[in-house]
Design a protein that fits this description.
The chain has about 450 residues and is an alpha/beta fold. The chain is built from eleven helices and 20 strands. The longest helix has 23 residues.
Length: about 450
Protein backbone atom coordinates (compact mmCIF):
# COMPACT_ATOMS: atom_id res chain seq x y z
CA UNK A 1 0.00 0.00 0.00
CA UNK A 2 1.19 3.52 -0.75
CA UNK A 3 2.23 5.47 2.33
CA UNK A 4 -0.28 7.64 4.21
CA UNK A 5 1.67 10.82 3.47
CA UNK A 6 1.69 10.13 -0.26
CA UNK A 7 -1.96 11.08 -0.69
CA UNK A 8 -2.44 14.81 -1.08
CA UNK A 9 -6.13 15.22 -1.86
CA UNK A 10 -9.59 13.69 -1.58
CA UNK A 11 -12.34 13.05 -4.09
CA UNK A 12 -14.97 15.79 -4.23
CA UNK A 13 -17.33 14.49 -6.90
CA UNK A 14 -17.97 11.26 -8.82
CA UNK A 15 -19.74 11.32 -12.22
CA UNK A 16 -19.81 7.95 -13.94
CA UNK A 17 -16.19 6.82 -14.11
CA UNK A 18 -14.93 10.41 -13.71
CA UNK A 19 -13.79 11.68 -10.33
CA UNK A 20 -13.04 15.34 -9.55
CA UNK A 21 -10.52 16.55 -7.03
CA UNK A 22 -8.95 19.89 -6.09
CA UNK A 23 -5.24 19.98 -6.82
CA UNK A 24 -2.54 22.25 -8.22
CA UNK A 25 0.03 19.44 -8.37
CA UNK A 26 -0.94 17.85 -11.66
CA UNK A 27 -0.91 18.35 -15.43
CA UNK A 28 -3.18 17.17 -18.21
CA UNK A 29 -2.44 13.52 -18.98
CA UNK A 30 -0.74 12.77 -15.65
CA UNK A 31 -1.35 9.45 -13.95
CA UNK A 32 -2.65 9.16 -10.40
CA UNK A 33 -3.29 6.46 -7.80
CA UNK A 34 -6.74 6.34 -6.27
CA UNK A 35 -7.10 4.50 -2.94
CA UNK A 36 -10.57 3.62 -1.72
CA UNK A 37 -11.48 3.35 1.95
CA UNK A 38 -10.96 -0.44 1.82
CA UNK A 39 -7.36 0.01 0.65
CA UNK A 40 -7.98 -0.96 -2.97
CA UNK A 41 -5.79 1.06 -5.36
CA UNK A 42 -6.73 1.98 -8.95
CA UNK A 43 -4.97 3.90 -11.68
CA UNK A 44 -6.51 7.09 -13.07
CA UNK A 45 -5.56 9.67 -15.69
CA UNK A 46 -6.11 13.43 -15.65
CA UNK A 47 -8.41 14.14 -18.59
CA UNK A 48 -9.45 17.73 -17.81
CA UNK A 49 -8.24 20.70 -15.77
CA UNK A 50 -10.44 23.61 -14.72
CA UNK A 51 -8.49 26.06 -12.56
CA UNK A 52 -7.73 24.09 -9.37
CA UNK A 53 -10.10 21.20 -10.20
CA UNK A 54 -8.82 18.09 -11.94
CA UNK A 55 -11.08 15.51 -13.57
CA UNK A 56 -9.67 11.98 -13.65
CA UNK A 57 -10.85 8.94 -15.59
CA UNK A 58 -10.51 5.86 -13.37
CA UNK A 59 -9.16 2.91 -15.33
CA UNK A 60 -11.10 0.25 -13.47
CA UNK A 61 -14.24 2.39 -13.27
CA UNK A 62 -15.58 4.37 -10.33
CA UNK A 63 -17.96 1.67 -9.15
CA UNK A 64 -17.43 1.15 -5.42
CA UNK A 65 -15.49 4.40 -4.97
CA UNK A 66 -16.63 6.93 -2.41
CA UNK A 67 -15.80 10.57 -1.87
CA UNK A 68 -13.60 9.41 1.01
CA UNK A 69 -11.20 7.92 -1.54
CA UNK A 70 -7.81 9.62 -1.70
CA UNK A 71 -5.68 10.53 -4.72
CA UNK A 72 -1.92 10.76 -5.26
CA UNK A 73 -0.57 12.24 -8.48
CA UNK A 74 2.56 10.67 -9.93
CA UNK A 75 3.69 13.88 -11.64
CA UNK A 76 4.16 12.25 -15.06
CA UNK A 77 2.08 10.72 -17.88
CA UNK A 78 1.87 6.98 -18.41
CA UNK A 79 5.19 5.26 -19.05
CA UNK A 80 5.85 2.17 -21.11
CA UNK A 81 8.58 -0.45 -20.90
CA UNK A 82 11.14 -0.23 -23.69
CA UNK A 83 13.90 -2.79 -24.21
CA UNK A 84 14.66 -5.74 -26.47
CA UNK A 85 12.84 -7.88 -23.90
CA UNK A 86 9.44 -6.56 -24.98
CA UNK A 87 9.68 -8.27 -28.38
CA UNK A 88 7.38 -11.27 -28.45
CA UNK A 89 5.33 -9.92 -25.53
CA UNK A 90 1.70 -8.82 -25.09
CA UNK A 91 0.69 -5.80 -22.96
CA UNK A 92 -2.60 -4.24 -21.94
CA UNK A 93 -3.54 -0.58 -22.24
CA UNK A 94 -1.73 0.26 -19.00
CA UNK A 95 1.51 -1.17 -20.38
CA UNK A 96 1.33 -4.21 -18.07
CA UNK A 97 2.28 -7.64 -19.53
CA UNK A 98 -0.73 -9.97 -19.86
CA UNK A 99 0.99 -12.98 -21.40
CA UNK A 100 2.39 -14.56 -18.23
CA UNK A 101 5.98 -13.94 -19.35
CA UNK A 102 9.00 -12.83 -17.29
CA UNK A 103 8.78 -9.73 -15.11
CA UNK A 104 9.87 -6.49 -16.83
CA UNK A 105 9.62 -4.11 -13.88
CA UNK A 106 13.39 -3.49 -13.88
CA UNK A 107 13.56 -2.70 -17.61
CA UNK A 108 13.83 0.85 -18.94
CA UNK A 109 10.69 3.00 -18.89
CA UNK A 110 9.94 5.75 -21.41
CA UNK A 111 7.17 8.34 -21.47
CA UNK A 112 4.29 7.68 -23.85
CA UNK A 113 2.85 10.45 -25.98
CA UNK A 114 4.98 13.51 -26.55
CA UNK A 115 5.37 15.79 -29.56
CA UNK A 116 5.73 14.75 -33.18
CA UNK A 117 9.08 14.73 -34.94
CA UNK A 118 10.98 17.89 -35.82
CA UNK A 119 10.50 18.37 -39.60
CA UNK A 120 14.26 18.94 -39.93
CA UNK A 121 14.79 15.31 -38.88
CA UNK A 122 12.39 13.92 -41.49
CA UNK A 123 13.55 12.38 -44.78
CA UNK A 124 11.45 12.48 -47.95
CA UNK A 125 9.94 8.97 -48.31
CA UNK A 126 11.69 6.92 -50.99
CA UNK A 127 11.66 3.29 -49.85
CA UNK A 128 8.91 0.75 -50.42
CA UNK A 129 7.54 -1.78 -47.93
CA UNK A 130 6.68 -4.96 -49.82
CA UNK A 131 3.52 -6.60 -48.46
CA UNK A 132 3.14 -9.41 -51.06
CA UNK A 133 -0.46 -8.25 -51.55
CA UNK A 134 -0.65 -7.42 -55.29
CA UNK A 135 -3.43 -4.86 -54.91
CA UNK A 136 -1.14 -2.91 -52.56
CA UNK A 137 2.32 -3.51 -53.99
CA UNK A 138 1.25 -3.09 -57.61
CA UNK A 139 -1.43 -0.39 -57.47
CA UNK A 140 -1.10 1.43 -54.13
CA UNK A 141 2.47 0.99 -52.88
CA UNK A 142 3.05 1.18 -49.12
CA UNK A 143 5.98 3.56 -48.65
CA UNK A 144 8.19 3.74 -45.56
CA UNK A 145 7.00 6.48 -43.17
CA UNK A 146 3.56 6.53 -44.78
CA UNK A 147 0.39 6.82 -42.72
CA UNK A 148 -2.52 5.13 -44.43
CA UNK A 149 -5.85 3.69 -43.24
CA UNK A 150 -7.89 0.75 -44.45
CA UNK A 151 -11.45 2.08 -44.89
CA UNK A 152 -13.97 -0.70 -44.45
CA UNK A 153 -17.24 -1.71 -42.81
CA UNK A 154 -18.16 -4.30 -40.21
CA UNK A 155 -18.09 -7.81 -41.61
CA UNK A 156 -15.30 -7.22 -44.10
CA UNK A 157 -12.01 -9.16 -43.63
CA UNK A 158 -10.01 -6.11 -42.57
CA UNK A 159 -8.44 -7.89 -39.59
CA UNK A 160 -7.33 -10.71 -41.86
CA UNK A 161 -5.78 -8.19 -44.25
CA UNK A 162 -4.04 -6.31 -41.44
CA UNK A 163 -2.61 -9.52 -39.96
CA UNK A 164 -1.47 -10.71 -43.38
CA UNK A 165 0.38 -7.47 -44.00
CA UNK A 166 1.92 -7.80 -40.54
CA UNK A 167 3.51 -11.19 -41.18
CA UNK A 168 4.26 -10.71 -44.89
CA UNK A 169 5.66 -7.16 -44.94
CA UNK A 170 9.44 -6.76 -45.03
CA UNK A 171 9.54 -4.62 -41.86
CA UNK A 172 12.06 -5.41 -39.13
CA UNK A 173 9.75 -4.71 -36.17
CA UNK A 174 5.95 -5.01 -36.04
CA UNK A 175 4.08 -3.10 -33.32
CA UNK A 176 0.42 -4.09 -33.04
CA UNK A 177 -2.20 -1.93 -31.30
CA UNK A 178 -5.63 -3.50 -30.80
CA UNK A 179 -8.45 -1.15 -29.79
CA UNK A 180 -11.66 -2.59 -28.35
CA UNK A 181 -11.03 -6.08 -29.72
CA UNK A 182 -13.23 -9.04 -28.88
CA UNK A 183 -11.22 -11.99 -27.57
CA UNK A 184 -11.55 -13.94 -30.83
CA UNK A 185 -9.92 -11.12 -32.78
CA UNK A 186 -7.10 -10.77 -30.24
CA UNK A 187 -6.50 -14.52 -30.38
CA UNK A 188 -6.55 -14.43 -34.19
CA UNK A 189 -3.85 -11.76 -34.39
CA UNK A 190 -1.63 -13.42 -31.83
CA UNK A 191 -1.84 -16.90 -33.37
CA UNK A 192 -1.35 -15.45 -36.87
CA UNK A 193 1.90 -13.78 -35.83
CA UNK A 194 3.02 -16.93 -33.98
CA UNK A 195 2.15 -19.36 -36.78
CA UNK A 196 3.94 -17.31 -39.42
CA UNK A 197 7.13 -16.92 -37.41
CA UNK A 198 7.10 -13.16 -36.79
CA UNK A 199 6.00 -13.08 -33.14
CA UNK A 200 9.61 -12.88 -31.96
CA UNK A 201 9.89 -9.43 -33.62
CA UNK A 202 6.39 -8.26 -32.70
CA UNK A 203 5.12 -6.24 -29.74
CA UNK A 204 1.38 -6.33 -29.02
CA UNK A 205 -0.65 -3.76 -27.07
CA UNK A 206 -4.21 -4.97 -26.66
CA UNK A 207 -7.33 -3.34 -25.31
CA UNK A 208 -10.22 -5.79 -25.35
CA UNK A 209 -13.85 -4.72 -25.49
CA UNK A 210 -14.26 -5.61 -21.80
CA UNK A 211 -11.20 -3.59 -20.69
CA UNK A 212 -11.34 -0.01 -19.29
CA UNK A 213 -12.22 2.50 -21.98
CA UNK A 214 -9.47 4.92 -20.91
CA UNK A 215 -6.91 2.26 -21.86
CA UNK A 216 -8.31 2.37 -25.38
CA UNK A 217 -7.06 5.94 -25.64
CA UNK A 218 -3.65 5.04 -24.24
CA UNK A 219 -2.93 2.10 -26.56
CA UNK A 220 -1.85 4.17 -29.62
CA UNK A 221 0.49 6.31 -27.49
CA UNK A 222 2.14 3.23 -25.96
CA UNK A 223 2.59 1.54 -29.34
CA UNK A 224 3.89 4.64 -31.10
CA UNK A 225 6.30 5.55 -28.29
CA UNK A 226 7.91 2.12 -28.51
CA UNK A 227 7.92 2.19 -32.33
CA UNK A 228 9.65 5.58 -32.33
CA UNK A 229 12.40 4.37 -29.98
CA UNK A 230 13.06 1.25 -32.07
CA UNK A 231 13.33 3.45 -35.17
CA UNK A 232 15.54 6.15 -33.63
CA UNK A 233 17.76 4.20 -31.25
CA UNK A 234 17.94 0.81 -33.00
CA UNK A 235 17.59 2.18 -36.56
CA UNK A 236 14.84 -0.33 -37.31
CA UNK A 237 12.17 -0.24 -40.01
CA UNK A 238 9.04 -0.37 -37.86
CA UNK A 239 5.51 -1.12 -39.06
CA UNK A 240 2.70 -0.08 -36.69
CA UNK A 241 -0.67 -1.79 -37.17
CA UNK A 242 -3.74 -0.36 -35.41
CA UNK A 243 -7.34 -1.56 -35.37
CA UNK A 244 -9.91 0.01 -35.08
CA UNK A 245 -9.51 3.80 -35.01
CA UNK A 246 -13.27 4.27 -35.00
CA UNK A 247 -13.30 2.49 -31.63
CA UNK A 248 -10.65 4.99 -30.51
CA UNK A 249 -12.82 7.93 -31.61
CA UNK A 250 -15.88 6.40 -29.92
CA UNK A 251 -13.91 6.14 -26.68
CA UNK A 252 -13.05 9.85 -26.99
CA UNK A 253 -16.72 10.60 -27.48
CA UNK A 254 -17.77 8.58 -24.42
CA UNK A 255 -15.27 10.29 -22.15
CA UNK A 256 -16.19 13.69 -23.59
CA UNK A 257 -19.83 13.08 -22.72
CA UNK A 258 -18.82 12.09 -19.18
CA UNK A 259 -16.98 15.40 -18.88
CA UNK A 260 -20.09 17.22 -20.13
CA UNK A 261 -18.25 18.68 -23.10
CA UNK A 262 -20.29 20.17 -25.92
CA UNK A 263 -20.11 17.72 -28.84
CA UNK A 264 -19.53 18.66 -32.47
CA UNK A 265 -20.58 16.62 -35.54
CA UNK A 266 -22.58 13.48 -34.69
CA UNK A 267 -21.65 13.63 -31.05
CA UNK A 268 -17.86 13.50 -31.57
CA UNK A 269 -15.64 15.99 -29.80
CA UNK A 270 -14.43 19.10 -31.59
CA UNK A 271 -10.78 18.09 -31.22
CA UNK A 272 -11.23 14.77 -33.07
CA UNK A 273 -9.01 15.91 -35.95
CA UNK A 274 -6.26 17.08 -33.60
CA UNK A 275 -6.25 13.88 -31.56
CA UNK A 276 -6.11 11.68 -34.65
CA UNK A 277 -3.41 13.83 -36.27
CA UNK A 278 -1.18 13.72 -33.17
CA UNK A 279 -1.04 9.94 -33.53
CA UNK A 280 -0.82 9.64 -37.31
CA UNK A 281 1.94 12.27 -37.54
CA UNK A 282 4.24 9.94 -35.60
CA UNK A 283 4.91 8.25 -38.95
CA UNK A 284 8.37 9.32 -40.05
CA UNK A 285 11.51 8.33 -41.95
CA UNK A 286 14.17 9.59 -39.54
CA UNK A 287 17.34 11.18 -40.87
CA UNK A 288 20.23 8.82 -40.15
CA UNK A 289 17.98 6.28 -38.43
CA UNK A 290 15.02 3.98 -39.13
CA UNK A 291 11.40 4.64 -39.94
CA UNK A 292 7.88 4.34 -38.52
CA UNK A 293 5.09 3.39 -40.93
CA UNK A 294 1.47 3.43 -39.71
CA UNK A 295 -1.29 1.27 -41.17
CA UNK A 296 -4.66 1.40 -39.45
CA UNK A 297 -8.22 0.18 -39.83
CA UNK A 298 -11.05 2.72 -39.85
CA UNK A 299 -14.51 1.19 -40.00
CA UNK A 300 -17.17 3.39 -41.54
CA UNK A 301 -20.61 3.14 -39.88
CA UNK A 302 -23.18 2.57 -42.59
CA UNK A 303 -20.39 2.57 -45.20
CA UNK A 304 -20.52 6.37 -44.95
CA UNK A 305 -17.21 7.92 -45.98
CA UNK A 306 -18.49 11.32 -44.79
CA UNK A 307 -18.74 10.01 -41.22
CA UNK A 308 -16.54 12.22 -38.98
CA UNK A 309 -13.89 9.55 -38.33
CA UNK A 310 -13.04 8.58 -41.96
CA UNK A 311 -13.69 12.17 -43.08
CA UNK A 312 -11.13 13.63 -40.66
CA UNK A 313 -8.76 10.73 -41.27
CA UNK A 314 -8.73 11.43 -45.00
CA UNK A 315 -7.37 14.93 -44.40
CA UNK A 316 -4.53 13.62 -42.24
CA UNK A 317 -3.33 10.50 -44.01
CA UNK A 318 -1.63 9.94 -47.36
CA UNK A 319 -4.34 7.99 -49.11
CA UNK A 320 -6.48 5.02 -48.13
CA UNK A 321 -7.07 1.37 -48.96
CA UNK A 322 -10.80 0.90 -49.53
CA UNK A 323 -11.85 -2.65 -48.63
CA UNK A 324 -15.31 -3.82 -49.62
CA UNK A 325 -16.93 -6.99 -50.99
CA UNK A 326 -13.92 -8.91 -49.71
CA UNK A 327 -11.39 -7.11 -51.92
CA UNK A 328 -9.30 -3.94 -52.11
CA UNK A 329 -11.15 -1.67 -54.54
CA UNK A 330 -8.71 -0.41 -57.21
CA UNK A 331 -10.88 2.66 -57.84
CA UNK A 332 -11.57 3.76 -54.26
CA UNK A 333 -8.01 3.17 -53.02
CA UNK A 334 -5.18 5.66 -53.23
CA UNK A 335 -1.55 5.94 -52.15
CA UNK A 336 -0.36 9.52 -52.47
CA UNK A 337 3.28 8.52 -51.99
CA UNK A 338 3.48 5.74 -54.58
CA UNK A 339 5.07 8.09 -57.14
CA UNK A 340 8.15 8.24 -54.88
CA UNK A 341 8.90 4.53 -55.48
CA UNK A 342 7.22 3.45 -58.74
CA UNK A 343 9.90 3.11 -61.40
CA UNK A 344 12.55 4.21 -58.91
CA UNK A 345 12.53 1.47 -56.27
CA UNK A 346 10.53 -0.86 -58.54
CA UNK A 347 10.83 -2.32 -62.03
CA UNK A 348 10.74 -0.02 -65.07
CA UNK A 349 7.43 -1.41 -66.35
CA UNK A 350 5.58 -0.86 -63.06
CA UNK A 351 3.90 2.41 -64.01
CA UNK A 352 2.83 1.25 -67.47
CA UNK A 353 1.42 -2.04 -66.18
CA UNK A 354 -0.43 -0.32 -63.32
CA UNK A 355 -2.13 2.19 -65.61
CA UNK A 356 -2.89 -0.31 -68.37
CA UNK A 357 -4.46 -2.88 -66.04
CA UNK A 358 -6.70 -0.25 -64.42
CA UNK A 359 -7.67 1.16 -67.83
CA UNK A 360 -8.79 -2.24 -69.10
CA UNK A 361 -10.52 -3.12 -65.84
CA UNK A 362 -12.48 0.16 -65.95
CA UNK A 363 -13.47 -0.70 -69.52
CA UNK A 364 -14.57 -4.15 -68.40
CA UNK A 365 -16.82 -2.66 -65.70
CA UNK A 366 -18.52 -0.53 -68.37
CA UNK A 367 -18.90 -3.60 -70.59
CA UNK A 368 -20.54 -5.48 -67.71
CA UNK A 369 -23.15 -2.73 -67.52
CA UNK A 370 -23.82 -3.05 -71.25
CA UNK A 371 -24.13 -6.80 -70.90
CA UNK A 372 -26.56 -6.47 -67.97
CA UNK A 373 -28.75 -4.19 -70.12
CA UNK A 374 -28.72 -6.72 -73.00
CA UNK A 375 -26.82 -4.53 -75.46
CA UNK A 376 -24.84 -6.21 -78.20
CA UNK A 377 -21.16 -6.69 -77.33
CA UNK A 378 -18.26 -6.23 -79.72
CA UNK A 379 -15.33 -8.65 -80.00
CA UNK A 380 -13.25 -6.20 -77.96
CA UNK A 381 -15.96 -6.18 -75.26
CA UNK A 382 -15.58 -9.95 -74.99
CA UNK A 383 -11.82 -9.49 -74.65
CA UNK A 384 -12.43 -7.06 -71.78
CA UNK A 385 -14.75 -9.50 -70.01
CA UNK A 386 -12.15 -12.25 -70.28
CA UNK A 387 -9.52 -9.84 -68.96
CA UNK A 388 -11.74 -8.91 -65.99
CA UNK A 389 -12.24 -12.55 -65.04
CA UNK A 390 -8.50 -13.27 -65.11
CA UNK A 391 -7.64 -10.03 -63.31
CA UNK A 392 -10.04 -10.79 -60.46
CA UNK A 393 -8.78 -14.35 -60.09
CA UNK A 394 -5.04 -13.77 -60.36
CA UNK A 395 -4.50 -10.25 -58.98
CA UNK A 396 -7.59 -8.78 -57.30
CA UNK A 397 -8.45 -11.77 -55.12
CA UNK A 398 -7.49 -11.43 -51.45
CA UNK A 399 -6.15 -15.00 -51.54
CA UNK A 400 -3.33 -14.05 -53.93
CA UNK A 401 0.07 -13.65 -52.28
CA UNK A 402 3.08 -12.98 -54.46
CA UNK A 403 6.07 -10.71 -54.88
CA UNK A 404 5.81 -7.48 -56.86
CA UNK A 405 7.93 -8.72 -59.78
CA UNK A 406 5.92 -11.94 -60.01
CA UNK A 407 2.72 -9.86 -59.97
CA UNK A 408 4.06 -7.73 -62.83
CA UNK A 409 4.91 -10.87 -64.83
CA UNK A 410 1.43 -12.23 -64.11
CA UNK A 411 -0.12 -9.00 -65.44
CA UNK A 412 1.88 -9.31 -68.68
CA UNK A 413 0.64 -12.89 -69.03
CA UNK A 414 -2.98 -11.80 -68.53
CA UNK A 415 -2.59 -9.09 -71.17
CA UNK A 416 -1.06 -11.60 -73.59
CA UNK A 417 -4.01 -13.95 -73.15
CA UNK A 418 -6.57 -11.23 -73.86
CA UNK A 419 -5.11 -8.65 -76.24
CA UNK A 420 -2.80 -8.11 -79.16
CA UNK A 421 0.37 -6.09 -78.44
CA UNK A 422 -0.86 -3.15 -80.51
CA UNK A 423 -4.04 -2.96 -78.42
CA UNK A 424 -2.15 -2.25 -75.21
CA UNK A 425 -1.18 1.36 -76.07
CA UNK A 426 2.04 0.92 -74.09
CA UNK A 427 5.65 1.83 -74.81
CA UNK A 428 6.94 -0.38 -77.60
CA UNK A 429 10.26 -0.99 -75.84
CA UNK A 430 8.47 -2.42 -72.80
CA UNK A 431 6.23 -4.61 -74.97
CA UNK A 432 9.27 -6.05 -76.78
CA UNK A 433 11.00 -6.74 -73.47
CA UNK A 434 8.18 -8.10 -71.32
CA UNK A 435 5.27 -9.21 -73.54
CA UNK A 436 5.30 -13.03 -73.42
CA UNK A 437 4.82 -15.36 -76.35
CA UNK A 438 1.23 -15.74 -77.53
CA UNK A 439 -0.98 -18.32 -75.90
CA UNK A 440 1.37 -18.68 -72.94
CA UNK A 441 -0.97 -18.55 -69.93
CA UNK A 442 0.34 -17.44 -66.56
CA UNK A 443 1.59 -20.13 -64.22
CA UNK A 444 -0.66 -19.51 -61.24
Amino acid sequence: MISELAYRTRVEEIVGDIIRVRSLDCALGDLAYVENVDGEISLAKVVELDRDTASLQVFAGAKGLSTNARVRFTGHPIEVTYSDNILGRVFNGSGIPIDGGPDLSMDRKIEAGGPTVNPMMRVVPHKMIHTHVPMIDLFNCLVESQKIPIFSIAGEPYNELLARIGFQADAEIVVFAGLGLIFDDYHFFRTSFENHGVFHRTVMYVNQASDPIIERLLIPDLALAVAERFAVEEKKRVLVLMTDMTAYADAMKEIGISLERIPATRGYMGDLYTQLARRYEKACDFKGAGSVTILTVTTMPGNDVTHPVPDNTGYITEGQLYLHDGMIDPFGSLSRLKQHVIGKATREDHSQIMNTMIRFYAGAKETEKKQAMAFELSPFDHQLLKFSELFKKRILSMSVSTSLNDALDCCWAILAECFEPEELLMKEALIRKYFPARNAPADV
